[in-house]
Backbone:
């Protein structure tokens, strides 16, 4: 089954992620990519939006009492409805002129495991933000399309999307999901694991953004061959005397800190393989597994997964953009994919 572009125009696709929101406009590609964060200023009991996206992320963990920086998405679904709606509205306004809103159709991707209530909340917030029609697409399908996998063929394809909040493992064939499982382990959990490792082993308290920086700079899923690897200078608060302290963390320590979330990702892949019908599982052994999402960029995660599962593992090009690109492509190939895009829920 070959994909033929549809005839719709002025359509938009949104990857409403726990960490980042991306907006794709038909014919233009990805036009916005910002952190999913909203900052509010409270004055005389009234809440006002102060910043959204990049500017708001800079405020996380650094706000005075009158300002609150919120991440509206948690585990891939809406945790704060009001903030999510503000954020979507703000991003839509940023990328299109108001006059074109009347015909706006938006496809948003949702985690495979989202409940009907969670899906309705996402649809509702997109409609309230100005869309005339809102369709939902399952995230693993979007990730696989975005990674360029031949998902409409009658063969088994496995995609593992490792986001900020969740890791979704899915087996696809003939354009739909045969098996999917979402585990609440992703980049946020990795950051938490680094924070608690340093608290336990070095009595050092660091913030979430420092933990994320450690992970993206020297983070690794495997013990370095020399037993230590690269080293990074870090700053935090000494929990014994309460004063700021500068120290260092090695790649080996980060690998130790990340061992648990990495193991949980490996386990999810193994479970998916065990639950996959034998012919499709054989296809996956032949074709290997595709990793997408920001978490796929963790150093040596592909190697760690290969060692544990025996499968060949690839990291998608533009892994952070796959879901948005795939949702965008779904706009263009809507006819062939209509059975997987939900407009009424
Ligand atoms: N080089 C890197 N190494 C490790 N992690 C990384 C790297 N680059 C980004 N990340 C992590 O990837 C995560 C964001 O990925 P992504 O944008 O795919 O998530 P999301 O789509 O917002 O979340 P979800 O799909 O769970 O809703 C963050 O936790 C970020 O720290
Ligand atoms: Mg995502």
Residues:
């Amino acid at each position: 089954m070959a994909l033929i572009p549809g005839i719709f125009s002025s359509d938009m696709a949104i990857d409403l992620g726990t960490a980042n929101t991306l907006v794709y406009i038909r014919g233009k590609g990805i036009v916005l990519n910002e952190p999913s964060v909203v900052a509010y200023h409270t004055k005389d009991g009234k809440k006002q939006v102060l910043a959204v996206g990049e500017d708001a992320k800079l405020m996380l963990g650094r706000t005075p009492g009158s300002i609150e920086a919120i991440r509206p998405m948690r585990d891939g679904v809406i945790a704060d409805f009001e903030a999510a709606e503000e954020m979507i509205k703000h991003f839509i306004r940023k990328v299109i002129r108001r006059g074109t809103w009347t015909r706006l159709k938006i496809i948003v991707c949702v985690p495979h495991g989202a409940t009907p209530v969670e899906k309705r909340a996402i649809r509702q917030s997109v409609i309230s933000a100005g869309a005339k029609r809102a369709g939902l697409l399952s995230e693993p399908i979007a990730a696989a399309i975005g990674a360029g996998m031949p998902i409409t063929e009658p063969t088994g394809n496995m995609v593992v999307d490792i986001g900020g909040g969740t890791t979704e493992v899915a087996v696809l064939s003939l354009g739909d999901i045969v098996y999917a499982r979402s585990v609440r382990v992703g980049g946020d959990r990795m950051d938490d694991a680094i924070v608690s490792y340093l608290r336990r082993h070095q009595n050092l308290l660091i913030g979430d953004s420092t933990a994320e920086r450690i992970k993206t700079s020297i983070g690794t899923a495997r013990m370095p061959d020399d037993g230590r690897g690269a080293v990074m200078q870090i700053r935090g608060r000494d929990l014994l005397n309460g004063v700021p302290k500068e120290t260092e963390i090695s790649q080996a320590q980060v690998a130790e800190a990340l061992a648990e979330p990495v193991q949980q990702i490996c386990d999810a892949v193994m479970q998916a393989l065990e639950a996959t019908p034998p012919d499709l599982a054989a296809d996956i052994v032949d074709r290997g597994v595709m990793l997408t999402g920001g978490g796929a960029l963790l150093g040596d995660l592909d190697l760690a997964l290969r060692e544990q599962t025996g499968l060949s593992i690839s990291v998608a090009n533009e892994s952070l953009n796959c879901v948005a690109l795939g949702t965008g492509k779904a706009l263009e190939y809507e006819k062939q994919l209509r059975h997987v895009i939900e407009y009424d829920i």
Observations:
- The pocket of magnesium ion (ligand 2) is lined by residues 15, 17, 161, 163, 293, 323 (CB under 6 Å).
- The domain at 187-257 is CATH 3.90.640.10 (Actin; Chain A, domain 4).
- The mean pLDDT is 92.
- The CA atoms of residues 72 and 84 lie 5 Å apart.
